[in-house]
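Chapter review. Work through the record for Transmembrane protein before attempting the end-of-chapter questions.
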Amino acid sequence: MLASSLGSPLAAFAQSPRYAFAVVANALTSQPEEASAQRLIDAIGRDPQIAFIVYDGNLKGAHETCADHLYERRHDILDASRAPLVFVPGERDWVTCGMSGTGAYDPAERLDFLRQNFFSEPNAFGQTPLTLTRESESSRFRPYRENVRWQLGDTVFIGLNVPDGNNHYLNAGGRNGEFEDRVIANGFWLEHAAEYAKRRNARAIVIFMQGNAMPEHYERPDRFAWLRFHRAPRDGYLELRRSLVKLAEIFRGQIIIVNADDSKLAHGFTIDQPLRNDKGARIENVTRIAFSLRDPLTQWLQVDADTARRTPLRVSVRDVPKHLPLLPAPSSNQPGVGPSPAMPEMPEVSSMPDVTEIPGMPQSPDVAPVTPGASGAAVPRGLPPAENGVPMPAWPAQGGQNGLNGMNGQKGPEGGNSGGGDPLQPPGAPASGGFAH
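Structure tokens for Transmembrane protein:
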């Protein structure tokens, strides 16, 4: 069942305590960059330890048209990936399509176009199969094909449509239909993921979204804010944060949120714990990885997982090998533009570093840098030290509140791996004898 749901090449990752995944975003802002973006995706796919890639939003530039032919070319770039690739839609992919410089499309119509052309299949993009569970399998949330879930080992992964730009909250009068309906769908998907992870004896949930849903500074709700004449813009991420707090209450294991960031980060990413409940208390089992790569066309965020360690996830920034040549961009569908030549077979890159042995990388920006060979790497407050890279918080020990297994890599009573089978059930429903992948 595992091989059929993940595809036989990925079955080995589910059996092994070691694997890695890559995250990229904002790699395409113009047509001349398409070849470089395909080179980036190809370089990641050559690493034998990479289980999958997540493209975390923005397949187009801020001023590029939202026309069908552009999406079709970008679709081909994603689908040429050697490794399975999961696409999470971002702000430029549909929210900003209503601007005059992008064609003045209806954003909701462009989102429907993406759903029909990018999320219609049960599998992820790429040449290696990875079966995804889509929220659209629930009849109540049939349109939300972009919200996905998959599992590898004892970790559940979630892709969620949360764009930047205040989550597409519109300030105009009347019902904010697209926003309101998606808030409900996203809340259901997170709650369902919590129940699913508990039934599968998972130790962690990793959530990918493009938008930065966390405020820079937490402020307690003002009881008398209604007396002010000047009001701050309505926070479009408020309901999402409350759903994340509820997720953390249901699932007591580690929850990792990965999102792109527009601000410049000295080392390409930062690790923090910004989620708080309505009373201002920090949610201790939720950690956020925000990344903003210096050059999105030549770098990717890599997360190495080793469930045999107390700090099972390590984060680093990787670079495309300089000697790797450019690949021809996919054929253009624009009128008058001829097809590009077929993609040549590339020689394997022997100098690609082993992803399981990350060299000394800079620490998170809020951590003092560590020189190579120095002993005792500094880590963020409350996190255990790591030998290489930047560690994530330790997963719960055996016998925790969630009934999780110990750190010896054993599976739960149901196998703890992704599979295929029963349809989506509402949160709290008893687990069936099958396995919802």
